[in-house]
Design brief:
It contains 3 helices and 4 strands; from the N terminus they run αβββαβα. The protein has a 4-stranded antiparallel β-sheet, covered by helices on one side. The chain has 132 residues and is an alpha+beta fold. A hairpin with a 5-residue loop joins strand 2 and strand 3.
């Protein structure tokens, strides 16, 4: 069993009584692995009124947010169902499970703020991704 599967199994079998919620970052990508240039899907409502699907720093960067659960299995089931729901509402876009895309368009490197530029540089450095 892989290390990540072991961690999920341990998490689900834990009997600690604490409440927790999850926030899962996703990046909408097209079938070529490039960042989607589409607006926030109207089928998901307005992102600033949606408690479970919102944006991080850009239109294609979706965050899935669960309510708080005590039961680990219920938490994972909610997140899985939320993920499937969002997938059904984003047309031909794909949900990339990381906050950085698998490929970059050149325009992603044109920043409007120093913070965003540093954010991407830090992510590239931490994750070991190289600009192609």
């Amino acid at each position: 069993m892989s290390p990540s599967k072991n961690r999920v199994k341990a998490f689900l079998s834990s009997n600690k009584k604490i409440t927790k919620g999850l926030e899962k970052e996703n990046l909408r990508s097209d079938s070529d692995g490039k960042i989607s240039n589409k607006k926030y899907p109207s089928a998901l409502g307005k992102f600033y009124f949606n408690n479970h699907v919102t944006l991080d720093y850009s239109e294609p960067h979706l965050e899935l947010v669960t309510p708080v659960f005590e039961d680990n299995t219920q938490l994972i089931i909610f997140l899985k169902n939320l993920h499937r729901f969002v997938e059904s509402k984003i047309g031909d876009d794909l949900l990339w499970n990381y906050s950085m895309p698998p490929k970059f368009k050149k325009k992603i490197y044109k920043y409007t703020s120093i913070w965003r530029k540093q954010y991407v540089k830090t992510c590239i450095s931490i994750q070991g991704w190289a600009k192609k």
